[in-house]
Design brief:
Blueprint (H helix, E strand, L loop, with lengths): L1 H20 E2 L1 H11 L4 H18 L5 E10 L8 H11 L11 E14 L3 H67 L5 H36 L8 E2 L16 H23 L3 E12 L10 E11 L5 H70 L4 H36 L2
Parallel strand pairs: 1-4
Antiparallel strand pairs: 2-3, 3-5, 5-6
Helix pairs in contact: 2-5, 2-6, 3-5, 5-6, 5-7, 5-9, 7-8, 8-9
Length: 429
Amino acid sequence: MKQIFIYFAFAVLFVQQSVAQNITLDFCREKARANYPLLKQYDLIDKTAVFNISNANKAYLPQFSVGIKASYQSDVTEIPESLGQVISQMSGQPFSFPSMSKDQYQAVLEMNQLIWDGGITSAQKKSIKASAEADKQKTEADLYALNKRVNNLFFGIMLIKEQLGQVKMLQNELKENVRKVEAYLQNGLAQPSDLDAVKVELLNANQKETDLKSVLRTYLMMLSAFTGEKLDENSIFVKPVLPETTIAAENKRPEILYLDAQSKVLDSQKSMLNAANLPKIGLFAQGGYGRPGLNMFDAEFSPFFIGGLRISWNLSGFYSQKNNLQKIETAKKSIDVQKETFLFNNNLANIETQNEIEKIKSTLKTDDEIIQLRSNIKKASEAKVANGTMTVTDLLRDINNENQARQNRSLHEIQLYMTVYQLKNNTNN
């Protein structure tokens, strides 16, 4: 029973490892996005927006201020002595008005409570949200550029693996030809130089394999850095399913959404501009202690209190409101032009990519025919060499031609995948 359990555990582990080795394009793109440092920007944008909105809401909290003043003035208000004399004559008693001190002191605590700000706080919060959304869309556009880089690495790895497979086939074929030429040499049907020529081609194939493996390791290291996953030569890269090769009617590129978000930011700025020119209503209360208090003829320190309703309206904002609104409209038109230009260039790129896809498809149709013909020529050459009617050098040429034809087909196939996914990437569909 224990042995069965151990075998089962090893089997499960083997299956898990096998599954983990299958690398898809979608997997790489998702991992690259999650691993890219720029993704952290989303959280920073959200936190900043929360802080800014919280600050905007504090506009309706009571606002307190403290002021302390000590001053000396060269002159103060005085009542004419003649008026005091008149009062003395009328009352029959001596009378004089108190004089104000030239040194004055005051400590004041003031509270202001906003009741209505013309809608500027509401407009400000909408502007904050719109700006945060625009920043997110900008980040999304930057992250979207990763797709092309990941696509190039993924299909580059697939191409190199295909080429390594072709090189391996060539090596096996050349090894077989080394064996055949050695036999021909023993039977007097070949020269030692013929054997050397085959061995040289085998060495060239080995060098080609070494070079390809070096490039493959570089690509794997780069893709590992992007995805945060450990990828090596044993990783199995699965060919994706070819999507539709027609140009999508709707363009879903994040750059367009970013431009739309920028336009909404300008709309929110327009609302803030209009709200800033409306009157503000609030309550105020002021309490203090000083000399003089509210009674300017009282020479003693005394407390005082003032409260009431305050309406303020800054009319100077209307001087520049029209120009500021026109500046916003001009900026919106500029965004519309940018959007139109982007769609125009994107459409041209789509047309070019679509034509490239059709060209590669046509090329692939002839690649199979070329490979078949090159294979037939090679087989005929092998027979001629065996009969002594053709040199080994000519046979090697035909072998290389067949191998080159197979490599060309592999290249064209991967180019088709890259171009189709480029078309898909152009419209984000």
